[in-house]
Amino acid sequence: xxxxxxxKKNHRKHLVEYANGPSLQEINGxxxxxxxxxxxxxxxxxxxxxxxxxVGYMDPGNWSTSITGxxxxxxxxxxIILMSSLIxxxxxxxxxxxGIVSQMDLAQAIRARTSKTLGIVLWILTELAxxxxxxxxxxxxxxxxxxxxxxxxGIAVFITVFDVLxxxxxxxxxxxxxxxxxxALIVVIFVIFGYQVALSNPVWGDVIKGLVPSAKAFSxxxxxxxxxxxxxxxxxxxxxxxxxxxxxxxxxVQSRKIDxxxxxxxxxxxxxxxxxxNIQLTVAFFVNSxxxxxxxxxxxxxxxxxxxFFGLFEALSNPQVMSNSILAQxxxxxxxxxxxxxxxxxxxxxxxxxxxxxxxxxxEGFIHMKVPIWLRRMVTRLLSVIPVLICVLMTSGKSTVxxxxxxxxLMNNSQVFLAFALPFSMIPLLxxxxxxxxxGGDFKNSWIVKILGWISVFGLVFLNMKGLPNQIEDFFGSSxxxxxxxxxxxxxxxxxAVVLITLIWTIIELYKGNKRYMNQLAFETEK
Length: 527
Fold this sequence. Notes:
It is a multi-pass membrane protein. The chain crosses the membrane at residues 38-58, 73-94, 120-147, 153-171, 178-198, 230-248, 278-299, 326-346, 378-396, 416-435, 447-465, 485-508. The chain is mainly α. The protein has 23 helices and two strands. The protein has a two-stranded antiparallel ribbon.
């Protein structure tokens, strides 16, 4: 699929502009990668987009699911983190390939093959998914400010709106420096959790055994603290594989300048972009593994009653719940809890950067509209802040524990849109990269990638849809009535039906659009 999108130039600057040109036009093809460099220098030149993508696999939404999974089931769910990471590598490889070969991001590719009506529907759906992710970032950032500086939660939530000023500053310093800042924050997170796990001295033999897949990880029996292994596994999967990363990666890989008339140059870009992505996602795998190991080895088994960020912060400063004397001594100084809050703040800021870029990508790709980055961020962040502020205000007269539980539930419940939106990015991505018409004979997926891709797609969609009733039930609190459970299940089944109908609509339009493009190419060849 060649980039047939015309670039409509506007000579006057407006608040809202028409956009139908290259993806993230301000950075598209702006980073030179000279030929003739050695492997490591070339890899360094292509490194950066993978870090932006990896941020989504270790954002605040992942933290409580991994730590709670470790507390409840020891190392059993390590295999889920591993499988999720391997699937992520496969999906991000296809996403990078789509951007590099077609010169279009995923939103542009879908819109070019579907109707305007469906494009608007998918845009709204993806925006809701990004806002759901943003809620976790708001909560993580606000709690970090509260824990580090004792800023009241309501004010801290409001302060997170002004991270747009940080983004405005970053847009002035160049995209390569933004990539470097993201990598630096990832290193901070990794070092902090690595330090805490090193002090805990886990049983590494048991950690390695946990990486071996087991049917027990998907068991619906033997619940621990109200959570079954399947619920824990779904929580990790839902927090790990997010739809916005596929849109983001297909765009930011185009920041490198590529000669699209040279298949060798395209192959080189794809090769090193895949290396970059896989290395960064491996780091994300280790971060999530460290979080789960924390739940097992840092704390005494079952000692963390409150899995929220507040509860984890308090537990890390409580020597009595630490698993050994060294940890207890360090915890009494407050260092462990402070480092945790610093990592939380770093994670939230990283996710803010990538969330803003993704929002711009899908708005321009699906509805061909472009707004200033500060306006885009201000509007989406304010919309994300509203439910958090409402939650804080509604629980202001209650106990501290009730307030913390309500905020944690809001963060977990916001992830329902991710399960809802995921199929609409995964299946089109697989269809595009499987197609010889779109990718050409040299770059379409091999048969092994096709098989693994469809297994991954159907597996993730099935598990997300299977977990949807439980996610809806969580909206009714920890002790729902029978009537509420029935209502939650009915809502979930209606949502699943809506997903399937809309997905069939999308697949049919993509198939027809692909046929039209194939006929167009045949007609042009005959001429």
